[in-house]
Amino acid sequence: MKYMGSKNRIAKHLLPIMVEAANNAGITTWVEPFVGGGNMIDKVPNRFKRVGYDFNEHVIYAMCDIRDRANELPDNVCEEEYKSLKGIPPENITSWIRFECSFASRFEGGYARAKDGKNYAAIGSRSGKRQSPKIQGVDFIHSDYKDLDISNSIIYCDPPYQSTTGYSTGGFNHEEFFDWCRAMKDRGNIIFVSEYEAPDDFICVWQGEQKTNFSSTRKKATHNAVEKLFTLK
Q: Which of 2, 20, 46, 184 has the greatest number of C-beta atoms within 10 Å?
């Protein structure tokens, strides 16, 4: 699913690093506490048990739609229909619409219009049908990362970045998150985190400049930023 902050373009760089770490440690479970649009977990080999969590229940409904109801995803959504869905509870198909038909794929971020006549519902529907076979067998669960009981797993975290546009779920405590990562390492997990910066006890194992549409301290909403992958020492 198209999703703000998607790692779809750089997954080919990040995934081999993490899969190698899993293989070396004999780990066969892959967990993502911030699964978002599933653009990393859909590329993880299906020999792993794959579990994707997210605090935003709309994300989980949308990903389950892609996994289980790809043929029901609409090819056309008018602006009036899009607006009529704003604020309603998570449910099948309507949560997906509020991502795929929104500006920059930000949940309920305003109806996406295109001067060149692009049909964002149709584009999203085709994308969902392509992604669906790749996420068969993935468990998608609504949960706060702090409530997870995880051991002996690869944990890949793509949390809201520091000093960037917030997610619809509100503010995010980065210090608390990094403390949680340390606690998870103590339980036999291998932790990887996508971020721009991390505390000193995290080491950068990959970095690359990528175009992003995250708002930040820069004047332009779209700019190049150095994406990094960190792991705990």
A: 184
